[in-house]
């Protein structure tokens, strides 16, 4: 068979597929009469083709796939997480962004321990306390970080105290909302709200 023409094998396949022309069929028959190896090979190919055709109507049971999958070993959780990350790239990126942003916020929270406040000429600083003196009016929002605030006059806006305390004198007045933020998560939520307000405006 090694010394036989290569096209004879092609003729065998064409004949079994029913796609051989008459001239090639005649050449194949002549060759098979003279070559016992090719005749044996053709006979084995024909047996295989007949077997495949005879079992083509056989179908696997309906629950075959489920049974096979149930018998497979369970994959490790690590592989499951990796697959989830690969299948959900947008959620993975969003989660990573959120983790990095939270880390940045908490770093800022820890590093930002100095007294800071909204500057206004009517304010007085007494140690670690920002004072709105009696008779003075602060127009707009007042934000005090890492310190206390004492309102003896008037704040025409919101008052926000972050990581500190507020004291209201009997004559003190705040026309807007008063908010005390004394925990990192409250501070984080406050910062997110500020960003959202800036984006919306």
> What is the mean predicted local confidence, pLDDT?
80
The secondary-structure element order is: HHHHHHEEEEEEEEEEEH
In the sheet with the most strands, the strands line up as 1-5-8-11
The outline comes out as rod-shaped
- Low-pLDDT segments, ≥5 res: none
Number of helices: 7
State the end-to-end distance. 85 Å
Count of individual beta strands: 11
Helical percentage: 40-55%
Structural class: alpha/beta
Main beta-sheet annotation: 4 strands, mixed
Strand content: 15-25%
Radius of gyration: 42 Å
Structure description:
With 201 residues, the chain is of the alpha/beta class. Among the domains are: 6-55, no CATH class; 116-200, no CATH class. It contains seven helices and eleven strands. The chain has helices at 6-17, 22-34, 36-55, 64-71, 77-87, 89-111, 184-200, and strands at residues 116-117, 124-126, 129-132, 137-139, 142-145, 148-151, 154-156, 159-162, 166-168, 173-174, 178-181. A hairpin with a 2-residue loop joins strand 2 and strand 3 (129-132). It is rod-shaped. The chain starts with 5 loop residues before the first helix and ends with a helix.
């Amino acid at each position: 068979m090694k010394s036989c023409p290569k096209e004879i094998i092609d003729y065998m396949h064409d004949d079994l597929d029913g796609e051989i022309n008459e001239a090639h069929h005649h050449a194949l028959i002549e060759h098979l009469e003279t070559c016992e190896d090719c005749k044996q090979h053709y006979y084995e190919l024909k047996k295989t083709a007949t077997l495949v055709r005879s079992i083509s109507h056989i179908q696997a049971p309906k629950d075959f796939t489920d049974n096979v999958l149930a018998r497979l070993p369970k994959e490790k959780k690590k592989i499951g997480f990796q697959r989830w990350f690969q299948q959900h790239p947008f959620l993975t990126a969003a989660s990573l962004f959120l983790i990095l942003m939270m880390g940045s916020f908490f770093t800022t929270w820890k590093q930002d321990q100095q007294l800071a406040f909204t500057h206004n000429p009517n304010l007085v600083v007494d140690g670690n306390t920002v004072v709105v003196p009696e008779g003075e009016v602060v127009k707009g929002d007042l934000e005090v970080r890492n310190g206390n605030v004492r309102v003896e006059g008037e704040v025409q806006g919101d008052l926000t105290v972050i990581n500190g305390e507020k004291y209201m004198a009997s004559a003190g007045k705040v026309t807007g909302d008063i908010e005390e933020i004394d925990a990192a998560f409250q501070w984080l939520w406050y910062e997110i709200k500020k960003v959202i307000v800036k984006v919306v405006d």
